[in-house]
Design brief:
CATH superfamily of the domain at 1-80 and 151-163 and 183-233 in chain B: P-loop containing nucleotide triphosphate hydrolases
Oligomer: heterodimer
Shape of chain B: globular
Mean pLDDT of chain A: 91
Order of helices and strands of chain B: EEEHEEHEHHHHEHEHEEHH
CATH class of the domain at 1-80 and 151-163 and 183-233 in chain B: Alpha Beta
Largest interface: A-B, 21 and 30 residues
CATH topology of the domain at 1-80 and 151-163 and 183-233 in chain B: Rossmann fold
Structural class of chain B: alpha/beta
Strand order of the largest sheet of chain B: 6-7-8-3-9-10
């Protein structure tokens, strides 16, 4: 007897504790990698935000870094101008990224997939160039320095070893994961999946399709903004690469690698991508992207639904 | 009987083409109608027009006294028009329970009541739309429309392609719904006798026009008249 794909339902499964316990264990097991780990958590949050937009709402985007960068510059600029309190910085970054997302969403919800790709790509490039030109504000190619962060809860300073950053980024990732999971299991989240599968059917069932897509895109942008803000705050620097095209492409790769539309795919894909990048670059510094590309092509052709999709298929076959 | 839906000289179709011409109809609260006609007579298009899924060329639609001629489909649905489409339109990756949770709106129909009406769906509540049989998909399409708590339910050939035993079960369900009197119904059906036995009133369409509007019972007693409208020419 086969079942619907293992998507997160309202109730938590015991196995869902595993990634979080692993993340906590890594703090003690690999003390030398805490800075890298905090970058993984930030990328995972970014991939999670894309999952809402692409995996659930089915909106193809090649410019998601625009919102990551908006969040990063917002948090960075706040801290550089004397507002170093981290949590309010995150909130403001989310708000600015959400506004950006809302504005762009009206351009994407009506279009076809191709139009969406072009619009998001264009917006991403536009914002990158704008940040480059506005060097008086952003520091241009030199990046925004002088980001002076306050202490977490006024007690824990952001240290060079990434101890505070590790705890901070993991806690924010977890909180927003719980939130996103609730959204995904809500009637709103279900309707996004229904729209993705059969958009024409939804209006006659009472769902305002465009408004739902606007909401999903805006929410995804806000969470991407938080991810960007986390990077700005923990590294106390904002570079132009927060807005770069490769960041939009990388996050897409991470999500597809892990499996889109299942939330945990964002975590798994990011971890595999970033650890593989770190390892492969060590083994084969010149050609590591070759191996990564091979892995990606293999995943898309051999395992539909990414790593988690393959795991699902395997589990179903074993049960039979 | 209070007026629920009125069509006033509605001419509609897809793009520039005209499929339904000058349709006039007044439907009261809780009234049940069989919509009959040959293939291509415009029955499905008339339902789609009520939902706002076609292009309205002329005429107007009133819903509970208010003009809805320009209202978007999702507004009409939320105002109380439910639809069971011919092609069922179940979602592959959503489970049965998710299909219902996704569109549920407050009212007398809860998910539990829908499951009580279709015990088979309750058994399959965790199965994905892609794993359901044709009959189960049809039940799900009806349950999904009911859970939006409509004042008017539009059913487009719900029995099509179902095994005789399922047709009998589904007919019993529709009879139960019709007898409730709380919900109006327009039933498009290829089996005229079945449709007439389930409804109070019958409309016959021919080449996009409504050519007959009267009570169902007399038509059931006069197969020859029905034959003339419905037989393949």
């Amino acid at each position: 007897m086969s079942r619907a794909p293992a998507l997160p339902s309202g109730r938590w499964h015991a196995a869902e504790a595993i990634p979080w316990l692993l993340a906590i264990a890594c703090f003690f097991l690999f003390p030398g990698y805490r800075v890298l780990a905090s970058h993984v958590f930030i990328a995972a949050l970014f991939a999670l935000s894309l999952d809402l937009v692409l995996g659930y709402a089915g909106i193809l985007t090649l410019g998601h870094a625009a919102f990551f960068g908006l969040g990063a510059y917002t948090a960075g600029l706040l801290a550089a101008h004397g507002w170093g309190e981290p949590f309010s910085g995150l909130a403001l970054a989310a708000a600015v990224a959400a506004l950006g997302g809302l504005a762009v969403s009206f351009l994407v919800v009506r279009g076809t997939d191709l139009a969406r790709l072009m619009v998001t790509l264009g917006v991403g490039l536009l914002l990158y160039e704008a940040a480059n030109r506005a060097a008086w504000l952003t520091g241009g190619v030199d990046g925004l320095s002088g980001v002076a962060m306050g202490k977490l809860f006024g007690v824990f300073p952001f240290d060079l070893f990434g101890n505070a950053a590790y705890a901070y980024t993991l806690a924010v990732l977890f909180a927003l994961f719980v939130f996103t999971r609730r959204v995904a299991a809500s009637p709103f989240g279900l309707s996004l999946r229904a729209i993705r599968e059969n958009r024409a059917r939804m209006p006659a069932l009472g769902a305002p399709v465009e408004r739902r897509l606007v909401a999903a895109f805006t929410l995804g942008a806000a969470i991407a903004g938080v991810a960007g803000a986390l990077l700005a705050q923990t590294t106390q620097f904002v570079g132009l690469d927060t807005l770069a095209f490769h960041r939009s492409a990388d996050v897409l790769v991470m999500l597809v690698l892990g499996g889109a539309g299942r939330l945990y795919g964002a975590l798994v894909g990011t971890a595999v991508f970033m650890v593989a990048q770190d390892r492969l670059a060590g083994i084969d510094p010149v050609y590591w992207q070759f191996w990564l590309g091979l892995l990606l092509v293999a995943i898309v052709f051999v395992a539909r639904g990414g790593i988690l999709g393959a795991a699902d298929a395997l589990r179903r076959r074993l049960r039979r | 009987m209070r007026e629920l839906l009125a069509l006033e000289g509605v001419t509609a179709g897809y793009g520039d083409s005209i499929v339904v011409e000058d349709a006039r109809l007044a439907l009261g609260e809780g009234e049940t109608i069989a919509l009959l006609g040959r293939n291509g007579a415009g029955k499905s298009t008339l339902l789609a027009t009520i939902l706002g899924l076609t292009r309205l060329h002329r005429g107007a639609l009133r819903w509970q006294g208010g003009d809805i001629s320009r209202a978007a489909s999702d507004r009409r649905a939320r105002a109380g028009i439910g639809w069971v489409p011919q092609e069922r339109g179940t979602w592959r990756s959503l489970s049965v329970a998710e299909h219902l949770a996704c569109v549920a709106r407050p009212g007398p129909w809860s998910i539990d009541r829908a499951f009580a009406l279709f015990p088979r769906l309750a058994e399959r509540r965790r199965h994905g739309g892609a794993e359901l049989s044709g009959g189960e998909q049809q039940m799900l399409a009806i349950a999904r429309a009911l859970i939006t708590n409509p004042r008017l339910l539009l059913l487009d050939e719900p029995m099509e392609g179902l095994a005789p035993i399922l047709v009998r079960d589904l007919a019993a369900v529709l009879r139960e719904l019709a007898a409730g009197g709380a919900m109006a119904m327009i039933l498009v059906e290829q089996h005229p006798r079945l449709a007439l036995s389930l409804t109070q009133r019958a409309l016959v369409m021919e080449r996009g026009r409504i050519v007959h509007d009267g009570p169902s019972a007399p038509l059931l007693a006069e197969p020859a008249r029905l034959e003339r409208w419905l037989a393949v020419a």
